[in-house]
Each structure stands twice: as structure tokens, then as C-alpha cells.
Amino acid sequence: MATGRATEAVPAADLRLVSAAEIGCSDDRRFVLELEFVQGLASPSYLQWLSQNRYFEDENFLRYLEYLQYWRQPKYSKFLIYPQCLYFLDLLQDKEFRTNVARGPFKEMIHAQQFFFWQHYRGNRLKADIPVKAVHAICQVPN
């Protein structure tokens, strides 16, 4: 992310205020690029690549990850196809996680857990909803 001024002078919270001319692309293009990047964080293999290529040692990159927290806001998060990227974005705020994700076994464990989540989440959610619906029916609570 190159700007017309030093990124050290721009706190992460203020990066959205940098003009399109300073960024070098339109606001629409920036939105798409940041959307694609933040969703890429849902891939444990990509996180491992970032770690192995020392991106997590770059303070500017870490500030950029902090800046991307704005994707949690509903007006932005509604565009996410892979909402797990927000979970990984949180994990990336932790130095120990950033270090460990470079290791193959750690990355594989994360990937397996992510797969199990995808495999079982809907079924577990449906099972959990059944008792709640039964209680609502008994108590005549509207849905």
C-alpha cells in the first residue's frame, strides 16, 4: 500500500482518510482490493505464506492489519463471503499466532479445525435450534 506520504506518519485508524490520489486508485478499486485481501486471510496457507515471507515482521503491514478491522462494521461485513477472515484478522493481532502460523503442523491444525467447523457448523446449529424452538412453542413465544 504505497501512499504519497510516509505511512509511519499515518496511524492505522486514519488510513481510510488518505485520499484516492495519495493511494493511487479510486475508492471503488480500493474497496475491492481490500475486500479481496481481507478475505484471503481466511486461508491458513496464505497466512503461512505471509509469515514465512516475513510480512508479519513489517510494522507497516501490522498497522495495515489493524486498519482492516473496519471490516467488522456491518456496512462492510455484509460484503464478506468468508467471514472467518475476521476471526483470523483478530488472531493476527497476536504475535505468538503470527510466529506459529509459519510452522507446517500449526497451519495444518488450523486448516483441520476450519474444515471441521465448515463440516459440522450447520448441523450443530440446527440441533441447537430444536430445543429453543420447542421451548418457544411451549411458551407461545413468537418467532
What name does the CATH topology carry? Answer: Arc Repressor Mutant, subunit A
Terminal-residue CA separation? 47 Å
Q: Give the quaternary arrangement of the chains.
A: single chain
The CATH architecture term is Orthogonal Bundle
Listing every helix as H and every strand as E from the N terminus to the C terminus, the arrangement reads: HHHHHHHH
The major β-sheet equals: none
Helix content: 55-70%
Give the strand tally.
0
**Beta strand %:** under 5%
Number of domains as seen in the coordinates: 1
Average pLDDT, rounded to a whole number, is 80
Overall form: flat
Count helical runs.
Answer: 8
Helix/strand-derived category reads: mainly alpha
CATH superfamily annotation:
Mediator of RNA polymerase II, submodule Med31 (Soh1)
Rg, alpha carbons: 19 Å
Tell me, what is the CATH class? Mainly Alpha
Instruction: Report low-confidence residues grouped into runs of 5 or more.
Output: 1-11
How is this structure best described in words?
Pfam families: Med31. One of its GO terms (molecular function) is transcription coregulator activity. This protein has 143 residues and is mainly α. It has one domain: Arc Repressor Mutant, subunit A (Orthogonal Bundle), CATH 1.10.10.1340. It has 8 helices and no strands. It has helices at residues 20-23, 27-40, 44-52, 59-67, 74-77, 84-91, 95-100, 104-139.
Question: Any descriptors?
Answer:
143 residues, mainly alpha, Arc Repressor Mutant, subunit A, 8 helices, 63% helix, 0% strand, disordered N terminus, nucleus, transcription, Mediator_Med31
